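Question thread 4412

I'm putting together a teaching handout and wanted feedback from people who do this every day. The idea is simple: show students a protein as raw sequence, then show them the C-alpha cells that encode its fold, then repeat with a second protein so they can compare. Below is the first pair exactly as I plan to print it.
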Amino acid sequence: MTAVSPALSPARERLYLFDTTLRDGAQTHGVDFTLADKLKVMALLDRIGIDYIEAGYPGANPLDTALFSEPRGAKAKVTAFGMTKRPGRSASNDPGVAAL
C-alpha cells in the first residue's frame, strides 16, 4: 500500500486570501487612491481570486463611505475595517458603527 502525501490529499484545508491594499496600502506615503482607483483595484483583486477584500473604513472618511455605497459584482467578500465602540459612546449612537 502506498501512502498519500498530505499535500495531495483531497481533504486538505483550503487557504483563504485576505487583502488589505485598499485600507492598509492606502496609508502608504504618496498613495492617494481615487474612488475609480479603488474600484479598479477591487476588480483586479477579485479577478486574481482574492477571497476577502478589505475595502476601507466607512464612516472614517468620505472616500471609503462612497466606496461602500457602490454596487459590486465581485465574487470576493468585501469587508470593512472599523471599531466596535468608542469610549464614552454607546454602540447605537456611534457614527462609525452606523456606517458599517
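The second pair follows. I'd like the answer to focus on this one:
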Amino acid sequence: MGSWDTRFGSRNVKQECSSSTSSRLAPETKRLIRLASYSKCQAKSCVCLGWKPLSNQLPIRCDELALINALPCLACQHSFGCHTVQLSSKSADELEELAKCAQAMEQFRAAMQRETSSHDKELYQFLFFSLRRSLSEGRTHRLENPLGLPPFERQNVIDILRMYFVARNESCDGPFGRSPAVLFEAFISWLDGYRLVQPPIFEMLGRRTKEERVDYCVCYDRWFIYCYVPGLCNYFKMHRPSLIFGSQLLAHIFGNSFRNPSVELCLQQHKNSFVTVDRLASFIADFREFLRSFDATVGVPSKSDGLPKCLQANLGDNADSRSKASSKPTRRRSVLTRKAKQADKRDHDIPDTLWYDIKNEYERREQLRRPHILLDSILELMPRDKLARIEEERGQIFVHVINNNLSQEQGKEKLFWLLQLQNVISQQLPRMPLEYVARILWDHKHKNIVLIKNSIVIAGICFRMFVDQGFSEIVFCAVAANEQVKGYGTHLMNHLKDFHIRHGVYDILTYADELAVGYFQKQGFSKKIHVDRSRYEGYIKEYEGATFMACKLYSNVVYTLLSSMIEKQKDFVQLLGERLSAKHDPNTVYASPFASGSDLKLPLSVSQIAGIQAVHVRSTTVSTSNNATDQSSEDLDKLKSLLTKLRSHPSAWPFLEPVDAVEVPDYYGFIKYPIDLETMEHRLESGYYCHPKLFKADVMRMMDNCRRFNHVTTRYYKAAVALEKAFLSMWVKEMEL
C-alpha cells in the first residue's frame, strides 16, 4: 500500500504531526495541515489532490502560520496556501466537520487494508472516495448513494409486525402466549443485530436467479452502508434495519436458517424474558407463513390498542426516520399521519353508535345489491375503472411488471409478453419508429407494466424510474384498439401509481401527444409542472410537438381502490343524511322569520333561521365576515365579465340558448345534464355559483355535451373545441386560480 500512501501523502503527514516539531503547533494549525493533505490545489491547471510537505520543513513556533502558507508542496511545488484557499472562508464548526470527515476517511482506508472480502472492500472504497471528493472540494460531505436513501420500503419491519400481531390476535391463533411483548422485543433485537451474509456466500447457499442475486446485492449494500458501517464509524448516522427495511429484507433472511447463536445472545440481553429458543422458532415459522400472503398495499393499523409496547414505541421512531432520514424531495407519510391525528382529535357531531349503525346498514345493503352489481354498472354512471377492477378480482385479467434483464434464465412467457407489448405500442403509436420502440422497450433500465387478458397483452405502460432524483418517466402508454373505452387504461395507470408509491417515488413525468393529453388529465396529470427543473433536466426524453405533463402521488392513497372508496364515502354520507332526517318530523311547520313586526334584515345568519338549531347545524359553517363578502363580490364580477366574453365569442353561437327539443327530439334523452350560456346567466344572477369552480364545471360540461352528441366532423364539435380553448385561456388570465 506504499503507492496508496504516496498518492495522498498521509504517511508524511502522520510522521510530521507525530514529531516533536509538529507537537508544538497550535491545534487549529494541526487541523489545517491535516485538511490540506486532502485538499485539491486551487492553482490553475494543477491536478494535485493534496499538500505533501517536505521533511522537517514545518516551523517550530505555533504562531508562524504565515510561514506555513509559503511552504511548497512536494508534488506540485505550489504553496500551502494554494491548497487551503477554499478553507479560509470556513467557520470553526465547518472546519471541525471536515476534520471528522478526514478521520472517517482514514478509518475506511485502514478497514480496506484489513478486509479480505472483495465485495466489502469495494464498499469501503466507495465510501472512501465519497469522503475524499468532499474534502478535496472543501465542502460538507453528503452521501450521494446510487442505491437510494432510507427508508427503502413503504412498510418497514415494525409495520409488518403490527399487521401480523393484529391478524393473529383477531383469529386467536398466534404463538404469542402470555408475554407477546418479550417475544417481539427478542425478534426485533435479533433482527437489528443480524449480520447479513456477503453476496458471494449468498450465491453459494443455493441456486439463485440473476434477479434474486441482484436484489440481495442491493439489499446487502444498503444494509452495509446505513446499518453496519455507522457501528464502526460514528461519522455516519446509524439506522436500525427494522425501521428502514421491510418485506424484502425479511424475504432474504428467511432463506437462511434462524437457528443462529445470535438468537441465544439476544435472549440473554432480556433479563426478565421467559422466551425460549423453541418458542421463538415457532413464532418465526408462523411469521414466515404470514409473509407468504403479505400484501404491501394494505394499510398499517393506525390504532395502538392491545399492541406490545415495543411496536407502539417504534411507531414514533418510524415516523421520524421516514421524515428525517432522507433529504430527497419526496412525499413522506409523517406529515399526513400527523394531520390525520389532529383531525381525529376534533369534536364530531355524530355519535359513535350512529356510525356503527350506518356501517352495518351499508354492509347489509351491499350484500343485497351484490348480485345486481353488473346490471347497476351498465345502467348507471360509474367510475372508469370499476369494470376492470371487477374483472381482475374474478381473475379475468392480470397485471404484471416486467422488464428485460439481459439474462438467459428469463422465462419464455415474459419475453412473449414483451413482444406482444411491442406490437400494441407500434400499432397505437404509428409515428414512433419501430426500431426506437424496440430499443426502449427491451432496455433493461426500463420497466413495463402490462395488462393480460385471455393470455394476450392488451395494454401496457413503459416507464423508467429515477429513484435518486425522486421521479419516474412514462415513455409509452397504449391500449389495444378493440379494448379501449373499457377502463383498462385507468386501471393500469392506478396500478402504476401504487407501484411507484411502494418504491418511494411520488412524481411521474411524461410527454403526451395531442391525442393523449385528455387521457393523462383524467389520470391526474397537469400541464403545470411542480417538479424542480434541476431534478429532471438531462434525464428524460423530450419530444417535439408534445405536451409536458406531471402527476404528484400521495403515499396515503391506494389508487386502485380510490374510486371504490369514494363510492363508499358517498353511500355513507347518504345513509347519514337519511338517519339524521328521520329523527326530525318533516311535517313540522316553522313560523316565518319575517312575521308582522319583525325587524330582521337580509342577509340572515344561520342561527336566525327557525329549526336550524334542532338539527345541530354549526353556525361556523357559513362565513359572514367582510373578507368573505368582498371576495364573493369580486368573484361575481369576474364571472360576469367572463360570461360576457364567452357570449361574444365567434364560436359561442351553438351555446347561446337551450337546445330546442322540437328540432332535436333525441337530445334530452341522450344528454342527462344539459347546460347553456343562458341558463348559466340565470344561475349567476340567482347566486348559484358559490365558488368559481362551479362556473368552470358548467362550462366544461357544456363543451363535453356538445362533443358527445355531435360527430367530430360537424361544425358544432369544432365550435366546442374552439370555445373551450378560448375559455381556458380567459380563465387563467382573469380568475388566477
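Top answer:
Good format. For the second protein you could add a caption like this: Residues 165 and 307 are 7 Å apart (CA to CA). The chain has a mean pLDDT of 74.
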